[in-house]
Write a structure and sequence with these properties.
single chain, mainly alpha, Serine Threonine Protein Phosphatase 5, Tetratricopeptide repeat
Length: about 550
């Protein structure tokens, strides 16, 4: 409460000083209740409690025509609560007053114009947004991309003079060609899907959609056969299921290249993802809800809404969104179950979460391979290794090929055996995993570390760790492992080099910092060692067993640890 009060006082000071308290309005024009509600709304907004923020902003709407910053916050709050149509009306009224001077206001007006198929008006609003597009790099991308799309929609051709934004431009070109029904659409999607510079597997869905619209069913089946359930996204897994069950109409129900609103909706979804990747959840949800406004049929995109709410610890809101996914959408229903289980784990603990997901899983008549894989991982993460092994085995027995999928499953099962102390079976699985994929840095790291801990095959273990580190020197866990390996063989100087790097890569990991403290002690840097041990005690993720050991080390050093 004290922190909120401090924030409020700061906001008051800014409010008094700012020149953006537009239209020369003074505090005398408003009563204290209006101002109190407004400032309370700001505090709630900044504390990510958008529902409360909106209540306060609604109670201070007298400020709407007087203060640009109020308008922006109020509009954002409406959109974040998925009240996009209401936000648009607010902006429309404010525009008449000449009081909508921010980039996202024009995005709302553009969306409204697109919704009503008024492309000319959308273009006018885009031109008005020009002066705001350089405020950040995403605004530039949004402005230029919308400019290109609007040109294509209006003139039925692709703009020749345009800015290039790398892979984003490749995505946009594929959709533009699809909209224009160009023969080059196929090659555009294939070039995008096979792009080595990133994961563009999402666009397999749109490629399949394009093939279905052009009645290329045999090609659709060929593409779907290449999708693996375990390693695919929800969208692709659902796509594969629809194709296998010949539910081809399901694709056109949610997206069509012939609909400009669907295309822009997908572009805004991309923007939402970009903001989400930078942990800007407000911006992400803003563009996500704008995307859903343009194409409400694409209900599957709501998974990102749920993920954002979950990330923000707004669990009740996440659960409300998750209700969109019933058993009609097989894989999305399972996503709902998993996310609800994760929420239960956060609120009540692992045992309750496992009980929930196990109960739901038992009621599914024919669980698919992805569901079995997920339930196995849940059991493994909850340290119920026997059940994890049971489900991993079911999948392994169903796989006849030596694929990377099988290699990964052997790794996971081997890790479960290792945790149970069944080293013979653990080694067998991990070695077989490496036979399939000898350059898997994580399997090399796990097996080598296990051997070192058992004082087994030391030379070979060190060789595997050196190889793992050469493959993934950027990975903090592998860096920690090789550092700890040198510690175990008493090469403390070499160990310090790697463990220092591991701390730099992952500064808030308890194990890494504990290891670094140990090596500092061995190098007679006792004060520094105790500093890192104390630091571990202050980390939220440090478990009680580690805390007990560290408390002893702080007092006695490594003698009794």
């Amino acid at each position: 409460m004290f922190n909120k009060l401090i924030k409020l006082l700061v906001v008051l000071g800014i409010f008094y000083q700012t020149t953006t308290y537009s239209k020369s309005a003074s505090f005398n024009e408003f009563n204290s209740r209006d101002l109190t509600n407004y400032f309370s709304g700001i505090v709630a907004f900044e504390n990510k409690n958008n529902s409360d923020a909106l209540k306060f902003f609604n109670a201070s709407k007298i400020l709407l025509k007087k203060h640009n910053k109020y308008l922006k916050r109020y509009t954002y709050s409406l959109v974040l609560e998925n009240k996009v149509a209401q936000a648009i009306n607010v902006i429309k009224n404010a525009t008449n007053e000449g009081n909508s001077d921010f980039f996202d206001a024009y995005m709302l007006l553009i969306a409204d114009s697109l919704k009503t198929n008024n492309l000319d008006q959308a273009e006018k609003y885009l031109d008005l947004s020009l002066k705001f597009q350089n405020q950040n790099r995403f605004n530039l991308v949004i402005f230029e991309t919308l400019r290109q799309y609007l040109y294509t929609f209006k003139n039925k051709k692709i703009l020749s003079n345009k800015k290039n934004f790398g892979n984003i431009s490749i995505i946009n070109q594929a959709f533009q060609r699809c909209y224009l029904k160009k023969e080059s659409t196929r090659s555009s999607f294939l070039n995008l899907i096979n792009n080595p510079d990133g994961d563009y597997s999402r666009y397999i869905f749109f490629y399949i959609n394009f093939l279905i619209e052009n009645n290329k069913i045999d090609e659709v089946k060929t593409v779907a056969n290449q999708i693996e359930y375990i390693n695919s996204t929800l969208l692709l897994s659902q796509s594969k299921s629809w194709v296998e069950n010949e539910q081809f109409k399901e694709f056109s129900k949610i997206f069509s290249c012939n609909n400009h609103n669907d295309i822009i909706g997908e572009f805004l979804f991309l923007i939402s993802n970009l903001y989400s990747s930078e942990d800007d959840i407000k911006k992400s949800n803003f563009y996500l809800n704008l995307s859903n406004y343009l194409n409400p049929k694409f209900i599957l995109n709501s998974t990102l809404v749920a993920e954002n709410f979950y990330f923000n610890k707004e669990y009740d809101k996440a659960k409300k969104v998750l209700k969109n996914f019933d058993k009609k959408y097989e894989f999305y229903y399972w996503f709902r179950v998993k996310k609800e289980a994760q929420i239960i784990i956060k609120k009540q603990g692992y045992d309750e979460g496992i009980d929930f997901i196990s109960s739901k899983f038992s009621k599914i008549d024919k669980p698919n391979i992805k569901m079995i894989f997920d339930i196995a991982n849940f059991y493994k993460n909850s340290k119920n290794y026997e059940k994890a092994i049971e489900y991993y085995t079911k999948i392994i027995l169903s796989l006849s090929d030596n694929s990377k999928t099988k290699s990964d499953l052997l790794y996971r099962r081997g890790g479960s055996y290792e945790r149970l102390g069944n080293y013979e079976k653990a080694d067998e699985d991990l070695i077989n995993s490496l036979k399939i994929n000898p350059n898997d840095a994580f399997v090399l790291n796990y097996l080598a570390y296990s051997w070192l801990e058992r004082d087994y095959q030391i030379d070979e273990a060190m060789q595997m760790l050196e190889k793992a580190y050469a493959l993934r020197s950027d990975n903090p866990y592998i860096t920690d492992s090789i550092g700890w390996a040198y510690y175990l063989i008493e090469n403390y100087v070499e160990a310090e080099k790697y463990l220092k790097k591991a701390v730099e890569l992952m500064p808030e990991d308890p194990t890494v910092n504990d290891h670094y403290g140990d090596i500092l002690w061995k190098l007679n840097r006792n004060i520094q060692a105790r500093y890192f041990w104390r630091y571990v005690l202050g980390l939220d993720d440090t478990n009680e067993d580690v805390r007990k050991k560290i408390n002893i080390k702080i007092i006695e050093g490594l003698k009794s640890s």
